[in-house]
Design goal:
Elements lengths: L1 H5 L4 H4 L71 E5 L15 H11 L3 E6 L5 H12 L3 E6 L1 H5 L9 H7 L3 E4 L9 E5 L3 E5 L5 H6 L3 E6 L1 H15 L15 E4 L2 E8 L4 H10 L4 E6 L5 H12 L3 E6 L11 H7 L3 E3 L9 E5 L3 E5 L5 H5 L3 E7 L1 H15 L14
Parallel strand pairs: 2-3, 3-4, 10-11, 11-12
Antiparallel strand pairs: 1-7, 2-5, 5-6, 6-7, 8-9, 9-15, 10-13, 13-14, 14-15
Helix pairs in contact: 3-4, 4-6, 9-10
């Protein structure tokens, strides 16, 4: 698995780093990935937080003991548990599917993060229609938290006038700033930065469908370093920098958290799909993927090539659109690589790759050229077997809900 991290490394030679936003923080300029034979563009998993990372706790430093003062033991010391640096959440539309019941839902967890925020909540999220989340944000604003939301124009502010919407209007009326990207390409991110310390990202739109009907995932990262990277990306968009002309700082978008290398990539400036191809090319044991939209042929072909080399490859496509000429489902089917259509009557909305049972790729990016070349997107790549096991468990659950592809759908040459 160490080879994985290698794959990300050389990116710094491809992309010039730009000046970070004003901050006393000094970014690290080396990418902690291990060398492989994979050619250059590579990356190290990271999320929306500043760079160099060491696990941070609230435990104060303990000064050296003064030996001439006797210590009388009375009770065993209280050990304060330290929060781990990550959390992973999955939607469960077969069980948690009532928007009026928040208990156990991702919406409930998100509101918890909002309620705990002390200084800032900066959001880059595609669409929105959850009134309880709007109310929590307004309460945060009223207690002095700096709340800002960057959204998509058509799917964000323009849709806010539709039935069941209006939540952005609630925010604006309460003095919360909301901006959209005002362009044809999508501002497709789904990330939140809390207090410049915590990043919330993944595939989940903050909507009833996204949380209660679709299959989605959320990755939470507690790291000031990675939060710095996401905050910098947020500020770029907030100040009107979109698309391929936005500066890339990929060599400063990584961290090692409790031994786990994490790399964050933003599209289009970081050429995410090229990096995913390099990563998948290094797979030795297995590749699993869940894909709402998968239309990138080079990424599909490299997975097929690894399957021919003996790597165990399986994937699930969202059924809607998967039989279209642009989808790569036919490519997998005709190559004899196991790929199925999902069983969710709504959408399989994940954008997920798991490599060699230890490397996880997740975020907002669909596996398509539009997502890679035009949209505002983010992806986290990390190497951690414990986290990967959770994503593999979710994969197996969804795989068991799928259906085999009808052979009549495709004619293979």
């Amino acid at each position: 698995m160490k080879k994985l991290l290698v794959s990300f490394l050389l990116i710094s030679t491809l992309l010039a780093a730009c000046e970070p936003v004003a901050s006393p923080y000094t970014p690290v300029t080396q990418i902690p990935f291990f060398a492989s034979e994979t050619p250059a563009p590579f990356i190290v998993p990271v999320t929306d937080t500043p760079l160099v990372i060491q696990p941070v706790t609230d435990t104060p430093l303990i000064p050296p003991l003064v030996t001439d003062i006797p210590i009388v033991a009375t009770e065993p010391p209280v050990i304060v548990p330290v929060d781990r640096w990550w959390d992973v959440y999955f939607t469960d539309p077969l069980v948690i599917n009532n928007p009026d019941v928040l208990s156990g839902s991702i919406e409930e967890k998100l509101i918890g993060f909002i309620n705990n925020a002390q200084t800032s909540i900066h959001i880059a999220s595609f669409e929105f229609n959850l009134t309880p989340v709007a109310e929590a944000l307004i309460a945060a604003k009223n207690r002095g938290v700096d709340v800002k939301w960057m959204t998509d124009d058509k799917n964000g502010l323009e849709y806010d006038t539709q039935p069941g919407r209006g939540q952005f209007s609630l925010l604006i009326a309460s003095g919360i700033e909301v901006k959209d990207d005002a362009r044809s390409a999508l501002m497709h991110n789904k990330f939140w930065v809390f207090d410049q310390k915590i990043v919330w990202t993944g595939s989940t739109n903050i909507t009833e469908n996204g949380i209660f009907k679709q299959n989605n995932n959320v990755l939470v990262i507690r790291s000031t370093d990675l939060a710095f990277a996401y905050e910098r990306e947020f500020q770029e968009m907030w100040n009107g920098q979109f698309g391929p002309r936005a500066p890339s700082t990929v060599n400063n978008q990584w961290a090692i958290l409790d031994g786990t290398p994490v790399q964050v990539l933003f599209s289009p400036e970081d050429k995410i799909v090229s990096n995913l191809i390099a990563l998948v090319k290094d797979a030795q044991v297995s590749i699993r993927f869940l894909a709402f939209s998968f239309t990138d042929y080079p990424l599909a072909q490299i997975m097929i090539d690894r399957a021919k080399a003996g790597v165990d490859v399986k994937g699930v496509f969202e059924t809607f659109g998967s039989a279209s000429p642009n989808s790569e489902l036919q490519t997998f089917f005709c190559a004899g690589v196991p790929a199925r259509q999902d069983g969710n009557g709504s959408f399989l909305h994940d954008k997920l790759i798991i490599v060699d049972n230890s490397i996880v790729v997740t975020g907002s990016l669909n596996f398509s050229s539009n997502a890679d070349d035009s949209n505002e997107e983010n992806v986290v790549i990390l190497e951690n077997a414990e986290i990967a096991a959770l994503y593999l468990q979710e994969f197996e659950k969804l795989w068991n809900q799928t259906q085999d592809v009808d052979p009549a759908l495709f004619k293979c040459q």
